[in-house]
């Protein structure tokens, strides 16, 4: 349990770090950050606080799509926004002012985010709201996981732009590149996101592993 929880928190930190790298690349925010910055333009929120707000809304959608909600989902909902605000406020990632240095930081951010996704999804505590939505689309369409993510990125980038979010070359690169990076990282780790049996909140607090929970559901005629 401790090892899995460590993987979860480490993965969420890497996700926030990757997001901050893309932002500091200074070529335009990533699609979700464009959307969240657009919301922050409308409401008195930091981008991290807007990230939490969007995550809450996505959790509701994920529940409606009948994906499991776990500790990882809730931790993702809160901690990525908190980590993001802390990293940006600390100034540990310098802002780039050149095209090639900016591109390098954006690409590094995409791979860092992808590795973060691998760690926290593989912990089995429940995927985050965005990744749960990605997995739900994959289950229902059988499209490659990278394509599912890219479609989501393009959609939210468009919505964010309409809300006044900072759209740029980095946004386009992230919209199409993040799905590719996730595909590469997941293949390197021989990881299939839909094969992970995530624990629900109830199962985690009862101390039941995901596989045991699945067997119990299968043996229950009312489920």
State the oligomer: single chain
Distance between the termini: 27 Å
Number of H/I helices: 10
Fraction in helix: over 70%
Largest sheet: number of strands, sense, barrel closure:
none
**Radius of gyration from the alpha-carbon trace, in angstroms:** 17 Å
- Rough shape? globular
Q: What proportion strand?
A: under 5%
Give, in order, the helices and strands: HHHHHHHHHH
Please state the average pLDDT score. Answer: 84
- Strands, total number: 0
Given the helix and strand composition, which structural class is it?
mainly alpha
**Poorly predicted residue ranges:** 211-223
Q: Tags for this entry?
A:
globular, mainly alpha, 223 residues
Structure explained in plain terms:
The chain is mostly helical and 223 residues long. It is built from ten helices and no strands. The chain starts with a helix and ends with a helix.
């Amino acid at each position: 349990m401790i090892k899995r929880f460590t993987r979860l928190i480490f993965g969420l930190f890497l996700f926030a770090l990757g997001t901050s790298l893309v932002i500091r690349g200074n070529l335009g925010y990533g699609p979700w950050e464009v959307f969240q910055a657009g919301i922050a333009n409308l409401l008195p929120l930091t981008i991290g606080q807007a990230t939490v707000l969007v995550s809450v809304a996505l959790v509701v959608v994920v529940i409606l799509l009948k994906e499991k909600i776990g500790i990882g989902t809730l931790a993702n909902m809160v901690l990525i926004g908190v980590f993001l605000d802390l990293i940006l406020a600390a100034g540990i990632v310098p802002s780039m002012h050149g095209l090639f240095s900016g591109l390098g930081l954006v690409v590094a951010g995409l791979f860092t985010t992808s590795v973060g996704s691998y760690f926290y999804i593989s912990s089995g505590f429940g995927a985050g709201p965005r990744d749960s939505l990605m997995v739900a689309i994959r289950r229902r369409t059988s499209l490659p996981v990278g394509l599912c993510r890219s479609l989501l990125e393009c959609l939210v980038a468009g919505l964010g732009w309409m809300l006044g979010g900072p759209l740029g070359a980095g946004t386009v690169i992230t919209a199409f590149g993040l799905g590719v990076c996730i595909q590469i990282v997941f293949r390197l780790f021989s990881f299939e996101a839909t094969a992970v049996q995530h624990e629900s909140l109830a199962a985690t607090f009862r101390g039941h592993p995901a596989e045991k929970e699945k067997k119990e559901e299968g043996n229950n005629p009312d489920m």
